[in-house]
Amino acid sequence: MLRNYLKIALRNLVKSTVFSAINVIGLALGMICCLFIFLWVQDEERVDNFHANGKNLYTAYQTFSTPGKVDGKYGTPMRVVNQRAVFLLEDVKSAVPEVQNTVFYATGYELPWGHPETFQTGEKKFKLEGSRASPDFFKIFSYPLLAGQAETALNDIGGIAISRKMAELFFGSPRNALGKSLRYENKLDFRVTAVFENLPVQSSLKFDFLLTWEAQKSKLEWASNDFRTYVQLAEMADPKTVETKINRFLQPRLAKNTGVTTQIGLQPFGEHYLHGNFVNGKPDGGRIEYVRIFSGVALFILLIACINFMNLATARSVKRAKEVGVRKVLGSTRGHLIGQFFGEALLLAFLAMLVTLLLVVLLMPLFNAFTGKQIASPLIQPSFWVSLLGLTVFTGLIAGSYPALFLSSLQPVRILKGVLRFTQSAIWFRQGLTVFQFGLAIILLVATIVVSRQTRYVQKTHLGYDRENLLYVRIEGELMTQRNYLLFKEQVSRMPGIALVDRSSEAPHVMGFVVDANDGAANTSNDAINWEGKEKNVSVGFKPTSVGFDFVKLMNLKVAEGRDFSQANATDSTDAFLVNEEAVKQMGLKKPIGKWISAWQKKGHIIGILKDYHTHSLHEPIKPLVMDVKEYEYFGVILVRTEAGKTKEALASLGKVYKELNPNYPFAYQFIDQEYEKLYRSEEVMAKLSNVFAVLAILISCLGLLGLVMFSTEQRTKEIGIRKVLGASVSQIIMLFSRDFLRLVWIAILIASPIAWYAMNQWLQSFAYKIDIAWWIFAASGFGALAVTLLTVSFQSIKTALMNPVKSLRSE
Question: Which parts of the sequence belong to the ABC3 transporter permease C-terminal domain (predicted)?
Answer without folding.
Answer: 297-412, 691-804
